[in-house]
Design a protein that fits this description.
The chain is mainly beta. The protein contains no helices and 14 strands.
Length: about 210
């Protein structure tokens, strides 16, 4: 699948704090129209070139997508279509909550055709068209998994595949790896890099080639 003229989005169903979001092309030049850099607020409560929905709260120092409460969703969408064919999207975030056994499902970073559609898949609609990188904090699988949580995985969809929450999406994932990012005293950095045929997600855990497209 080739991505062109699609939208960048972050959506969550946990207490997530964003401290920076930056999009670059493969020549390492910052694309400000796809970036969030402090201070976040523009005039009033507006964030230039970004729209937010659900429980999202924007301050000058951070963006909180959901509070530490049950059944909350929040999202922030880039409003500018992305025409870059080779890109890297960098996010610095923190995930916190008071729960020890029961807490939110996680959050996702989306690169999709449609936007601003809250739904059951980490704050987004199911049957999406595009790329999703899931940062899954809770094991919904009824039985043992072959991996630990939190877990990072990727899924590409043409609008026909259903994300199966009961199996944590394992039957539709391209690849994934465990990553201990919840409840840390320091922010976590993740970068999603796409170039024709290859998708990579390097972070503080070992870099992982999540997919090769043909």
């Amino acid at each position: 699948m080739t991505f062109s003229s699609w939208r960048l989005r972050i959506s969550v169903a946990v207490a997530l704090f964003l401290s920076s979001v930056a999009a670059l092309n493969m020549l390492d030049s910052l694309r400000r129209e796809h970036s969030l850099i402090k201070p976040y607020q523009g005039a009033g409560m507006n964030v230039p070139q970004w729209d937010f929905t659900g429980s999202t709260m924007v301050t000058s120092n951070f963006i909180r997508l959901t509070p530490d409460q049950q059944s909350k969703q929040g999202a922030i969408w880039n409003s500018v279509p992305c025409y870059t064919t080779k890109w890297e999207f960098q996010v610095q975030f923190s995930v916190h909550g008071t729960g020890r056994d029961l807490y939110g499902d996680g959050f996702a970073i989306w690169y999709t055709k449609t936007r601003m559609q809250l739904g059951p898949v980490f704050g987004n609609q199911d049957l999406f068209s595009g790329l999703a990188v899931f940062l899954d904090t809770y094991n919904n699988h009824n039985g043992p998994h072959n991996h630990e949580h939190p877990f990072v995985s990727a899924m590409v969809n043409n609008g026909s595949a259903v994300y199966d929450h009961d199996r944590d999406g394992t039957h539709t994932q391209l690849a994934g790896c465990a990553a201990k990012f919840r409840g840390k005293s320091h922010p976590t950095h993740i970068a999603i890099r796409y170039e024709p045929s290859v998708l990579k997600v390097p972070a503080k855990w070992p870099s992982l080639i999540l997919a090769r497209f043909f």
